[in-house]
Amino acid sequence: MASSSPMKPLCTTCGNKGVGVFKCEGCSQIFCRKHSNEHRDILIHQLDEIIFEHDTLQQTIIELKEKQNDYHHLIEQVNEWEKNSIIKIQRTAVETRQEIEKLIVLQHETISSKLHHLAEQLRKAREDDDFVEIDLRLWKTKLQELNINVTADVHPTVTIHEDPFITLVSQLNIKSITQRSEDDEKLVRIFGSVQIDDNGYVAIQRDSTMISYVSGKNEYSFGRYKIKFNIDKTELYHTTVFGIISKMEKFTQWPSSCHGWSNDDTYYRSGMYHSNNTNMKSDLKGQTSFTIELLLDCDNRKIQYFNEQTKNMRELNINLEKCPFPWQIFFYLRQIGDRIQLL
């Protein structure tokens, strides 16, 4: 009986054509001598690719570290911003101090000039022997006014506050609060039961059964102007409106030229009532006392207000067809005791 020869393993690559003589322990495949060398070359090439990817990743990491270490230019930008901001603040402080000094000197010079002029009048009256009781009373009144200005402490005559309409580095404004000018805004034109006090700087509603309007004396047609005032309400039942109207508007009915805001956070444009966007944050609503700085920007045909309590700002564009120049400030009062005070 004939015996059969054992089966030899075949090369994975050659198939039935070659005998396998080497087994790869990694993939468990068997190769002939030729394809065993090729298989090894393939593994070496794959290793080279992995080494290349590793080296590439390593170089990328090194470059990223170098870029992260190279942040001094960002610090320099921050330092430059800081330096410029300090320079602006210092310049503003210097200019403000100079303005204060000029204002104080001007106040003293104004008083000295008035006193000198009065002295000349008195000297001439005595030399000419030309004066009567009316002259004496007038001179005495002027002398008393000058005496009040001279003896008053100088510091309360000046206030400093940040300008909310200038950003980054706030500009400072100086204003005398004891020596009011004839050019100052005053409340003069009224309709209804408004009582004007403090020489036109205060308006008070005296009868809640009547609607009342009051407007200022100054006219605004060009430039930018700021008017600061307090609004004090006795209760929230009736609203108070502030803003502008056209001087040509007559106080016979609700002014169709009115542009402004109400303390219930609504606003008026061309005399018409509008509700604010529901997404807009509440500002005046629920408040019985607030300080407002109203900006009239005639050049850009708009008005703004800044609420000193909430630091919020609102803006309205003005329809010149409905509210032609010149503009005047305007207030609507209804509840008895409601009070407007110009600052």
In short:
The protein is α+β, with helices and mostly antiparallel strands and 343 residues long. Helices cover 33% and strands 26% of the residues. The strands form 4 sheets. Strands 5-8-17-10-11-12-13 form a 7-stranded antiparallel sheet, with no helix packed on it. It has a 7-stranded antiparallel sheet with strand order 6-7-18-9-14-15-16, with no helix packed on it. It has a two-stranded antiparallel ribbon with strand order 1-2.
Textual characterization of the structure:
By secondary structure, this protein is of the alpha+beta class. The protein is 33% helix and 26% strand. It is built from 3 helices and 18 strands. The strands form 4 sheets. A 7-stranded antiparallel beta sheet has the order 5-8-17-10-11-12-13, with no helix packed on it. It has a 7-stranded antiparallel beta sheet with strand order 6-7-18-9-14-15-16, with no helix packed on it. Strand 14 and strand 15 form a beta hairpin. It is elongated and about 155 Å long. InterPro entries: AN1-like_Znf (IPR035896). Residues 57-84 form a coiled coil. Keywords: Coiled coil.
> So what's the CATH class of the largest domain?
Mainly Beta
Strand content: 25-35%
**Overall pLDDT:** 83
- Write the CATH fold name of the largest domain: Jelly Rolls
